[in-house]
């Protein structure tokens, strides 16, 4: 099967979890089924070629120039307003339209798999010329009010032959918001996770830190975690330090919160670090906290489970499908500082509970959330989409 994979990140976003998802799925399809996979994505900011072609793990990457994005980033505010984002994405793709048209015209793709909506609209004319089935994966959902974002996702879903969502919770939200959707064309396929090769057969000391990993935004509950940690620290000063991995628009405010609570010496912000460094921190963590107010899936919870680190997660969104309370982790009410503080203290003061939860969670992560499973389920959707007919 010949597949065109379109990574849906907007041009101004650095490589993130979506980037890794597309990379891991593509390489697994090549490895497991011998498929031919081409990934359409954005090049590094400093890459001057309009189209830069590279090969990685048997996957061909068409990396589009985003020099225009580097200039636009200096002119637009952060975060970028939706209309500016749409115009900028179209300008971004417009710089490469002729080259893209030639490359896609000379290929013989059986199917296009687009990951969220950012590049689909800009590529509409090219996709219509190809006239082949489109599978769309919804990785997240916009917070209301975001009429522009919802309109773009509406466009994507109306033009898709089949749709994949990453959790049952997200499937329910999609069906509620986009009532034209037929339930039978939506398939739930959870994300996969894998241990970096360098981390295989390495065991850590699960006592050194309490960890968080993700974008530093309020909807991720970072402020809730810092306040809960301060509350727990007042009751037990033997708690390990809190290590917050990642970056985002809220970082400055979260640093200020830690300072105002007089715990900045115990809260460490790493900024953006490599996937390998994240896993190295996780295997040395006493517990990993995912305090999101709403989370479509929660990949960091599974990464922690795979590393044998017990998880405390919000009972929200897709997280409650991953973490089974008292079995593979602990669930707390979203936004409840005192409940989260109590869960942190309970796990720290009961190492036997940490060991029990870690054992069950690592087994689930290794058996359920594998790329072998994800690629098999995804390929079944591809077969259905080809049988169903054309999308865009």
From TrEMBL:
GO terms for molecular function: glycosyltransferase activity. InterPro entries: Glyco_trans_1, Glyco_trans_4-like_N, Glycosyltransferase_grp1. SUPFAM superfamilies: UDP-Glycosyltransferase/glycogen phosphorylase. Keywords: Transferase. Signal peptide: none annotated. It holds the Pfam family Glyco_transf_4. Residues 16-193 form the Glycosyltransferase subfamily 4-like N-terminal domain. This is Glycosyltransferase family 1 protein. It comes from Blautia faecicola. The lineage of its organism: Bacteria, Bacillati, Bacillota, Clostridia, Lachnospirales.
């Amino acid at each position: 099967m010949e597949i065109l994979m379109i990574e849906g990140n907007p041009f101004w976003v650095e490589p993130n979890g979506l980037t890794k998802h597309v990379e891991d799925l593509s390489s697994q399809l090549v490895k497991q089924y011998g498929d031919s996979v081409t990934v359409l994505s954005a090049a590094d900011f400093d890459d001057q070629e309009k189209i830069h072609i590279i090969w990685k793990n048997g996957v061909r990457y068409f990396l589009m120039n985003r020099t225009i994005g580097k200039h636009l980033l200096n002119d637009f505010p952060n975060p970028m307003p939706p209309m500016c984002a749409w115009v900028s994405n179209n300008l971004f793709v417009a710089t490469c339209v002729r080259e893209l048209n030639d490359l896609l015209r000379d290929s013989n793709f059986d199917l296009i798999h687009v990951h969220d909506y950012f590049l689909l609209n800009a590529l509409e004319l090219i996709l219509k010329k190809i006239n082949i089935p489109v599978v769309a994966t919804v990785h997240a959902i916009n917070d209301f009010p975001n009429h522009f974002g919802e309109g773009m996702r509406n466009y994507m879903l109306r033009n898709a032959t089949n749709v994949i969502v990453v959790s049952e919770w997200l499937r329910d939200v999609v069906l509620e918001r986009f009532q034209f959707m037929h339930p039978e064309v939506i398939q739930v396929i959870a994300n996969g996770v894998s241990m970096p090769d360098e981390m295989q057969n390495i065991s850590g000391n699960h006592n050194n830190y309490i960890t968080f990993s993700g974008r530093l935004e309020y909807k991720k509950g970072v402020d809730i975690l810092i306040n809960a940690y301060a509350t727990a620290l007042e009751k037990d000063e033997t708690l390990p330090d809190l290590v917050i991995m990642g970056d985002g628009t809220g970082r400055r405010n979260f640093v200020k919160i830690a300072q105002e609570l007089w715990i900045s010496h115990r809260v460490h912000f790493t900024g953006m670090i490599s996937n390998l460094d994240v896993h190295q921190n996780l295997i040395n963590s006493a517990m990993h906290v995912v305090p999101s107010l709403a989370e479509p899936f929660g990949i960091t919870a599974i990464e922690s489970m795979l590393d044998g680190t017990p998880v405390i997660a919000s009972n929200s969104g897709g997280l409650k499908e991953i973490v089974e309370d008292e079995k593979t982790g602990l669930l707390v009410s979203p936004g409840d500082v005192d409940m989260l503080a109590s869960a942190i203290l309970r796990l720290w003061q009961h190492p036997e509970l940490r060991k029990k939860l870690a054992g069950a969670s690592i087994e689930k992560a290794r058996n359920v959330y594998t790329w072998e499973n994800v690629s098999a389920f995804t390929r079944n959707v591809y077969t259905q989409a080809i049988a169903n007919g054309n999308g865009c």
